[in-house]
Design goal:
disordered C terminus; 4 helices; hypothetical protein yedk fold; 12% helix; mainly beta
Length: 211
């Protein structure tokens, strides 16, 4: 699953690549974590939304509501379940990504291994979104089984969309969109870094508190 990704391309360049319009420059960090703002393409616009759907939680001790859990990844085999179905059918989006990270190594000493599609431009990951009362509009990445290239790191990966399928993901029928939820068949670049997996995060004024 993906719990960290990077977007290093300026918003204007992203708008040109995705054929979308952009308003005032959104306040988004280059490294994006669950519960923090990221950019998505929806309805011909570049928009800032919170990464992760809120799931209502209750205290095991008191039974009272507590801060919601951030659910930032949607498995493709769960898209027909009540939590995801309406968003998948009615509100699909593209998520521009420069690279995503997976944790590697021993517990407590994990480092960041980054994966990217060759080329200078960001690639598109399949996403879904919905309005929330907790964080405003929020989005989630759609996950599929991993490709052989990253088999030793994780059993799931983001759904990377070829450019000629972007419109079908956004505007196709649910059946057409679901057919695009498949294992990536292109090349990937790997960058195994010594960066610690857990390190201080850049906050933005609109960031919700993480659990």
């Amino acid at each position: 699953m993906c719990n960290l990704y990077r977007l290093t391309t300026p918003t204007d360049a992203i708008a040109g690549l995705f054929g979308a319009q952009t308003g005032p420059a959104p306040n988004v960090a280059e490294e994006i974590y669950p519960g923090y703002p990221g950019l998505v393409v929806v309805s011909g616009q570049i928009r800032s939304m919170t990464w992760g759907f809120p799931r209502a939680m209750k205290s095991k001790r008191t039974g009272l509501p507590i801060k919601p859990r951030t659910v930032n990844n949607a498995r493709e085999d769960k898209l027909a379940t009540p939590f995801w179905r309406d968003s998948f059918v009615n509100r699909r989006c593209l998520i521009p990504v420069s690279a995503w990270a997976e944790a590697q190594g021993e517990e407590g000493r994990m480092t960041r291994t980054w994966y990217a599609v060759p080329g200078d431009a960001p690639f598109a990951v399949a996403g879904i979104w919905r309005p929330t009362s907790e964080w405003g509009d929020a989005y989630s990445m759609v996950m599929v089984d991993n490709c052989a290239f990253m088999a030793e790191v994780h059993d799931r990966m983001p759904t990377i969309l070829h450019r000629d399928t972007w419109d079908a993901w956004l505007h196709g029928t649910p059946e057409e969109a679901f057919a695009l939820c498949r294992i990536w068949d292109g090349q990937l670049l790997l960058d195994a870094t010594p960066e610690p997996w857990a390190k201080p995060r850049q906050r933005t004024p609109s960031s919700p508190t993480l659990l």
